[in-house]
Design a protein that fits this description.
- This protein is mainly alpha-helical.
- It is built from 25 helices and no strands.
- It is elongated, with a radius of gyration of 28 Å.
- Residues 1-8 and 493-497 have low confidence and may be disordered.
């Protein structure tokens, strides 16, 4: 005879399902209240543990990490006592989520893989596939591509066996993203197509749709498919989002669209809308979700030349640029901010770091973008020789990758720099005057040495400043050193302002 479940547990299950839906749509505070009601009604010890696990997840989403961890430890101890693999799996999933939200990706991956093992023992293949998928994302953040591939393959196998459609959509989206970052367009497109086919079978999949839209957007944008930009931007604008920290994606997509169309004023308006939805700092809560939004918004601010908005994010994001060492994107964005804001040395340091990371990880599109940004950096600071060299490298790399839009943009800037170099060539007399002035000589001293009028010297200096885009003797010295008019052995007394 099957023992009937106590009546109170029926209400508990209803409250539990309501809480699941609320949490899924980014409303953890309301979900937590329903879970508290479910806990009051609950009589079944196993269901009690399930509810405690869900409450821990809500607490974590609300930024109450210490309370969540305490509740998880209590649930894990009860599960161990009952030897229930399903409860153990859920507890490990919650611990993994907490670790990931604090950027402790190695520990999070171990917890998720433990959860997957318990899930297989409990014959819950959907849970096991999600656990392996989340472990793969942690490996991706760490830049451990071989471990990512193994975990992703296991997730795909289990999700296919149990027909976990939502998990499969998300797996294909992330696999497409990895191929995109490494410049493997055809493979990225294959994964996206598989994700879209599965998505057509599911009525509501807002979170999973978000991944597909985002990856599809970058794939088309990077490959220079302008006919599709409007369509993708409209889809992003109309999409539902499962969490408030994902909301800026629609504005990021629209800002990128305006940037590609060279409508910078409209891009700035969209960047402002995105900024309003991503706090400039995060004192507590899910760091991993915040970082994706924060770095993307800062990147768009650089596109739109919104210096104040970019600079406001710089100091806080710098810490994460150092923490997320394997990833090229944080270093690239920080280099762009520093470049836009005129912090030349910091920009050069970050962009060189981004170049090393992209080469090490085999991320060819990011490597090409770093070349482009190094060209922009040297163009802004007036070193046209280096700017032209980096733009030329960028054009070649973008062409090899089939990134037509960026290739054309880099080539336009290369031609602009070439023209500026031709226009900025100094005559022999101008070069002689400029070289002496850059070393700190006054107009009177130069006139006496070259036996010419002081007014002539001043006229030459002004012409040279206009041609080379320098403002003072310190910048003139740097320009002369960069362009071979002076060597370090030639530099005598320190230049004066």
């Amino acid at each position: 005879m099957i023992e009937a479940r106590p009546a109170g547990d029926g209400r508990s299950i209803v409250y539990c399902e309501l809480a699941d839906e609320l949490a899924r749509f980014g409303r953890p505070d309301e979900a937590y209240r329903y879970l508290q009601l479910a806990l009051e009604e609950c009589k079944d010890p196993e269901l009690f543990q399930v509810l405690e696990n869900q409450m821990a997840g809500c607490l974590n989403a609300l930024g109450r990490g210490a309370e969540a961890l305490g509740l998880m430890k209590l649930t894990a101890a009860l599960a161990e006592a009952l030897s229930d693999p399903l409860i153990l799996a859920m507890a490990a999933m919650r611990r993994g989520a907490l670790r990931a939200s604090k950027l402790e990706f190695a520990e999070a991956a171990r917890e998720y893989e433990q959860a997957a093992s318990y899930g297989v023992d409990a014959m819950d293949l959907i849970l096991a596939s999600r656990a392996y998928h989340r472990a793969s994302v942690c490996y991706l953040w760490m830049g451990a591509f071989e471990e990512w591939r193994k975990a992703s393959d296991k997730a795909l196998e289990l999700a296919t066996r149990c027909r976990g459609l939502l998990t499969l959509i998300e797996i294909h989206s992330i696999r497409a993203l990895v191929h995109l970052m490494r410049g493997k367009w055809e493979r990225a497109e294959e994964e996206l197509n598989q994700g879209e086919e599965l998505r057509s079978l599911v009525k509501q999949a807002p979170g999973e749709a978000l991944y597909l839209i985002t990856v599809d957007w970058y794939l088309r944008a990077w490959r220079g498919d302008p006919a599709a930009w409007d369509e993708i931007a409209r889809e992003a604008a109309a999409a539902e989002f499962p969490h408030e920290l994902n909301e800026p994606v629609r504005w990021i997509a629209l800002a990128k669209l305006h940037f590609f169309r060279d409508h910078l004023e409209n891009a700035r308006i969209d960047v402002q809308s995105a900024l309003e939805r991503v706090p400039s700092t995060l004192s507590d809560g899910p760091l991993d979700a915040w970082l994706v939004g924060a770095f993307n918004v800062a990147d768009c601010a650089c596109d739109a030349e919104s210096k104040d908005e970019a600079l406001a994010r710089y100091e806080h994001l710098k810490a994460y640029g150092h923490l997320l060492v394997p990833h090229a994107l944080p270093a690239l964005v920080l280099g762009r901010i520093a470049s836009v804001c005129g912090m030349w040395e910091e920009a050069q340091t970050w962009l060189e770091e981004a170049r090393e990371r992209s080469v090490r990880a085999g991320m060819a599109p990011f490597e090409a973008m770093v070349y482009y940004e190094l060209g922009r950096l040297y163009q802004r600071c007036g070193d046209l020789v280096r700017a032209e060299r980096w733009f030329r490298l960028a054009v070649t790399k973008f062409a090899d990758l089939g990134m037509a839009y960026y290739r054309d943009r880099a080539d336009r800037l290369r031609r602009t720099v070439d023209k500026a170099r031709d226009d900025g060539k100094l005559s022999a007399r101008e070069a002689e005057v400029f070289r002496l002035w850059a070393r700190g000589r006054t107009a009177g001293e130069i006139a006496k040495e070259l036996i010419i009028e002081v007014s002539t010297v001043r006229s030459h200096i002004e012409h040279c400043k206009t041609k080379t885009n320098v403002r003072n003797q310190a910048e003139a010295l740097a320009w002369c050193l960069n362009h071979g008019l002076l060597t370090s052995d030639d530099v005598g007394e320190a230049p004066i302002e």
